[in-house]
Design a protein that fits this description.
Blueprint: H1 28-37, H2 62-76, E1 81-85, H3 91-102, E2 110-114, H4 121-131, H5 135-143, H6 157-167, E3 174-177, H7 181-193, E4 203-206, H8 214-223, E5 232-236, H9 242-254, H10 266-273, H11 275-283, H12 291-296, E6 302-303, E7 305-306, E8 312-313, E9 322-325, E10 332-335, E11 338-343, H13 350-353, H14 362-366
Parallel strand pairs: 1-2, 1-4, 2-3, 4-5, 6-9
Antiparallel strand pairs: 5-11, 7-8, 9-10, 10-11
Length: about 375
């Protein structure tokens, strides 16, 4: 068999879907539907009768999404590739899609939603308890929201996601990829490396794994997937979950800024080092009560220390906003319980920046 990557595209496919013109803006969804899905957009199978408005849960706040998108537009000049890992029924995708549309980016923006759409441990456990419980339990479950809504033993999260996106009128912008985050991100890396995609994503929103170690691996793979040449933003929610908070700070502490070999001029160093971060702070909303005080909290890093046994201790009284640092590691911005990391244009890969001798950091280099 010949190398599939060397085959020529079908003559019936417009060339722009395969190789965007030099200097032109790549439409990521069109490219991915062609190279991965044999020109079959899964959004076209959406049935509005499956729409499910009973799961409004998302921490992805419009103000934060707006700040992230405006930051990318300010630094890159445009926004066209946004990845979400962990989509459930589409609540956070809808927030991102609407904000992109409001910013006038909907024509070129692709939101790639990576999720196996099979639910998590809690959802399956909840269903099993009620499905095998007493009559009262089953009746109670029928009145409560059903996460899985099984049919023939299979979750219907995928069908409801498609319908919710279509009902919101975002089907041209959103492309669901029915894969775990690690598989989806590694696939994106391969597509970029092989030239089938021009660049990695400008934004990655992580809301999938919530286990110790798993979120750390997701962060490492996401870091090496995003647009390294121009810089990118990686952010997520559930800071209140111990595994997420621990893994985000562990990842930030394992990457050393000292390894980036910055220029010696302090002014140029600061300009290059914090280009995305500075733009982001400028775009955070400033009209709400207390927001100016919160913006002040970003000016100085709150030091996170390593305790005996390798654990990370946040400063006493640290709230759901601020900037947290460990030694010469990356800083993590926290805003209303959502965390934000910046891969600036001068940053290198995980393998080049990781310090394996630090507690808990050998994992990052061992995986490579």
């Amino acid at each position: 068999m010949g190398d599939a990557g060397s085959r020529q595209p079908s003559a019936s496919v417009p060339p722009a879907l395969v190789t965007p013109p030099a200097g032109g803006l790549e439409h990521v969804k069109s490219t991915l539907v062609h190279v991965l899905m044999n020109d079959q957009d899964p959004m076209k199978s959406a049935r509005l009768s499956n729409a499910d408005r009973g799961y409004p849960h998302t921490h992805n706040m419009p103000a934060l999404v707006r700040a992230v998108m405006r930051t990318i537009i300010a630094v890159h000049g445009q926004l066209n590739f946004y990845v979400e890992c962990g989509s459930m029924l589409g609540g956070s995708v809808l927030v991102a899609g609407r904000e992109g549309r409001n910013l006038g980016a909907s024509r070129n923006l692709t939101i790639l939603a990576m999720d196996p759409f099979t639910g998590d441990v809690n959802m399956w456990d909840f269903y099993a308890k009620h499905a095998r419980g007493s009559t009262e339990d089953r009746m109670g479950a029928s009145r409560a929201f059903s996460y899985l809504r099984l049919q023939q033993g299979q979750p219907t999260i995928w069908e409801r996601f498609l319908a919710n996106v279509a009902e919101a009128g975002l089907q041209e912008m959103v492309l669901p990829l029915r894969l775990t985050s690690i598989v989806g991100l590694r696939l994106t890396q391969r597509l970029v490396a092989s030239g089938r995609l021009r660049r990695g994503p400008q934004v990655v929103y992580l809301d999938s794994a919530h286990e110790y170690g798993e979120t750390l691996l997701e962060l490492a793979v996401a870091w090496d997937t995003v647009d390294a040449r121009r810089g990118a933003i990686i952010y997520g929610d559930d800071w209140a979950w111990d595994p997420v908070r621990h893994n985000v700070m562990r990842f930030a502490s394992c990457l050393s800024e000292a390894s980036t070999n910055m220029v010696t001029s302090d002014q140029r160093r600061l300009s290059r080092e914090t280009l995305l971060q500075t733009a982001f702070l400028r775009h955070l909303p400033s009209g709400t009560a207390g927001s100016l005080e919160r913006l002040e909290s970003f000016r100085q890093c709150q030091r996170v220390v390593t305790a005996q046994g390798g654990g990370l201790l946040l400063p006493q009284g640290s709230a759901d906003h601020g900037r947290f640092c460990t030694a010469d590691g990356l800083s993590v911005l926290l805003w209303h319980g959502q965390w934000v990391l910046f891969r600036e244009a001068h940053h290198r890969s995980v393998a080049e920046m990781a310090v394996p001798t630090r507690p808990g950091c050998s994992f990052l280099t061992d995986r490579l």
